Amino acid sequence: AADKINLIPQDFFAELCEQIIQHLNHKIPGVNTAELCQRIQTSGIEINVGDLAKIANIVSFLFSTAARNNLSTEELVTTLGNTVSTLPKHAVQVIRHVWNEQGKSISVSEDARNMATVGQFVDIKWKLGVAMSSDTCRSLKYPYVTVTLKVADPSGQITDKSFEMTIPQFKNFFRQFKEMAAVLETV
């Protein structure tokens, strides 16, 4: 991963670290590596979203472990120097700066440590479509609903999950949401 970190310009790496700290502080649901990767690629750097997600996971683990062990900035940098000799100098500088500025703000309560990790819902989008025909059927005229859920997984990576439903399936889906809303009204 160190060779991939070397590819990322310092400003983008700093933005990634800032987003990770915000995620660990529960200020944002996750790190949008797809959007950040697209911006890095637009600037002319060849990196794929999978590699960027791995880097985000490593840095997130680094920050959360440092918070759990209550490390000072110097202890973190010394530990990095002893264990990861291949980490680029600019990455160590960014990690030092971000940890020095915001590291102590990471809250690592016992409840948070013991809590089961599940994904977090971020956004939903839907659209109605009609399949007119296919290579095996000339006249379908079959309506469907496409739903795209934006979800932050436990590590903070934001991903899109899409699925299609027939109209009867969508009506059942909608009915279940109405039932959930009714139950929430009683709480």
Automatic annotation (TrEMBL):
Coiled coil: none annotated. Pfam families: COMM_domain. One of its GO terms (molecular function) is NF-kappaB binding. It comes from the Eukaryota. Residues 120-187 form the COMM domain. Belongs to the COMM domain-containing protein 6 family. PANTHER family: COMM DOMAIN-CONTAINING PROTEIN 4-8 FAMILY MEMBER (PTHR16231), COMM DOMAIN-CONTAINING PROTEIN 6 (PTHR16231:SF5). Scaffold protein in the commander complex that is essential for endosomal recycling of transmembrane cargos; the commander complex is composed of the CCC subcomplex and the retriever subcomplex. May modulate activity of cullin-RING E3 ubiquitin ligase (CRL) complexes. Down-regulates activation of NF-kappa-B. Inhibits TNF-induced NFKB1 activation. This is COMM domain-containing protein 6. The lineage of its organism: Eukaryota, Metazoa, Chordata, Craniata, Vertebrata. The gene is Commd6.
